[in-house]
Amino acid sequence: MGYRLFAMDTWFWQAPGWYPFAVRWEMLQTLGYDGGYHVLGPEAAWQEVPLLAQVPSRYGLEVAAVWFSLDLTWPRDSAPYQRRRHLVETLTGCSALEVAILASDPAIRPSDPALDGLAIERLAPLIERAAARGLTLSLYPHRGYWLERTDDALRLWQAIGQPTVGVVFSSYHWYAADRQDLAALLTRAAPALRSVNLCGCRTLRCGDRTLPLVEPLDQGDLDTFALLGLLRTIGYQGP
Q: Which of 81, 98, 120, 221 shows its CA 20 to 30 Å from the CA of 46?
C-alpha cells in the first residue's frame, strides 16, 4: 500500500523571499507529489487563498489542507478571529482545514486542560460553518503552542465529539515536545487521525541547550521507516 504524498509549503519560505504561487505548484507537479498544503503564515499566503480553486485543474494536484493558527486570547469579534471565520465561510478548492491553537498570554502554559472550555468555545463557530460547507477541521499540535502535544489534541477531539473534527500527527512536534511511547500514542490517535506530517528530525546541542531541528526525510535520528510501519499497523490510509 502506498500513501499519497503532499508537501507542506513552509519549505518555500526562504530568506531571500517567497516563491511565487505558480512556481511552487509547478515544482510540486514536476517532483511527482500528489499535492500540497497551504500554510497561512505570511500575509502573502492569505492573499493567495482565492488561487487555490485553480490548483486541481491547472496543475493536476490536490490542495490537501489549509493550515492556520488560532490564538485563544482573541475575542470572537476581533479582526484576526473574524478573518479565520471568513476563511471557513469562503474557502474553495480544498475541503480540509488544520488549526494550531496558541495562547499569546505568557501566563497560559502549554497543554493546560483548564483552557479546554475556552478552546472549544473559540472553535465552535468554525466547526459549525466548516461542517455546513462540507469541510473538515483537524487539530494540529505544535511545539510551544497551547495545543502542544498529540494527546492534547486527542483530549480536545474527544470533548468536541464532532465527526468533521479530527487530529493531525506531526512527527516533528512529537519529537520536539513529547517523545513518549510512539506506538501507544498512534494507537490512541488512530480513530481521530486525519493527516500525518512527516520530516526528518535531529537534536542540535548548543552549550547546555538542545534544539530540535527539522531535517529532510532521509536525515536525522527519527526512524521514519519505523514510523511508517507503525502507521500501517494501526491501519492508517493517508495522507
A: 120
Closest CA to 139 of 178, 170, 177, 98: 98
Please report, for the domain that includes residue 190, its CATH number. Answer: 3.20.20.150
Number of domains in the chain: 1
pLDDT one digit per residue (tens) for the chain, 239 residues: 578 899 998 888 776 778 899 999 999 999 999 999 999 998 999 999 999 999 999 999 999 999 999 999 999 999 999 999 999 999 999 999 999 999 999 999 999 999 999 999 999 999 999 999 999 999 999 999 999 999 999 999 999 999 999 999 999 999 999 998 999 999 999 999 999 999 999 999 888 888 898 898 889 999 999 999 999 999 999 88
Are the C-beta atoms of 127 and 160 separated by less than 8 Å? yes
List the domain range (segments joined by +) for residue 55: 6-233
- What pTM was estimated for this model as a whole? 0.95
Has residue 1 been placed in a domain?
no
Distance between first and last Cα of the chain: 12
